[in-house]
Amino acid sequence: MLTAPVSQKFSSKSAKPLKNKDESVAVGPTGIVVRIVEQLAGAMHTAINEIREINENAKLLSLNARIEAARAGSSGAAFGVVAQEMQALSTKTASVADDMANKTQESITNLVTIIGGNVRGSRLADIALNSVDLIDRNLYERTCDVRWWATDSSLVDALQRPSDSSSAYASKRMGVILNAYTVYHDLVLCDANGRIIANGRPNQFNCVGRNESKAAWFTRAMSTRSGNDFAFQSAHKSPLVGDQSVLIYAATVRSNGEANEPIRGVLGVVFNWEALSSAVLANASLNAAESQRTLRLIMDGEFNVLASSRPLPYDFKIPTQKLEGLLKESKGYILEELDNKKVCIACAKSPGFETYATGWYAILIQEIE
Questions:
Q1: Could you give the domains of the chain?
Q2: Residues contacting residue 92 through CB under 8 Å, at least 6 positions apart
Q3: Which pTM was predicted?
Q4: How many CA atoms, within 13 angstroms, populate the side-chain half-sphere of residue 89?
């Protein structure tokens, strides 16, 4: 029999938003970098304006000197030549100052784009990786839970010695398990033909007698080689729990609770996917302004949307052609244009935890102001 895994459980009730490490993060690292660059640009413009002001005074002084030289006649001729050169020098200085101002503005704009894009993209890629990693870590627990609970003697007995009383006790036992967890909607126990003979919350979900023989989670579990394996059905709306969004993990219940004995039935654990995905997407380290302009997605390996931070149009499609190179990396970002808007698209693939990996992606699409 499997022993109980020693690990923390994700609780949708106790999930807390991630906190920034310092107050400066409130405006975002990109904003901080841009602010510093803009301050440098401001200092440069101030210096150029001061040069222009000094140059204008020099021009005025040169003009006055030429007037005085003209009044002095032949005795002021040499002074007039100096005044003329001063004016020529002032004109050249003005041209240099204007050229410097134009080049500085262009360089600053490019610098903001490059540095700002790198900081933004790297940060969003890290957030994406943290999100999908958190999902992997939480879902790893589900694979342990289902294989462990499938060896419970009450479930084995209900299938080996079927009766109303054994089914009732199995239901009671599953209810006790559910009371200790906040991440499951229900636990369901099927016989080898796919008929549900007991569930953990019969007063909330009336599914006893329902036939699940064609459900993906049941058929996949029945195909596993031993009780040490598990089956999985990805995010979907399940009629078992009133069409709520779920993931279902399943394992075979075998004779005497032994991993290699004949199959007696299947235990399915109905995981509350909506609670986990909402908490992960909401807890992304984005300030309020960033959150408004950032679409956060969890997608499977075929790029079906499993969760989204906001409702999507029915014809929404991730631009996989733009992400082809990016998706080959563990994480990364690109700066692109979507729907005539400049965006940063960051992506991270499931890194896996212990022996488990969803193979999913977290993708963030943020509009660039």
A1: 27-118 (1.10.287.950), 150-276 (3.30.450.20), 286-367 (3.30.450.20)
A2: none
A3: 0.71
A4: 15
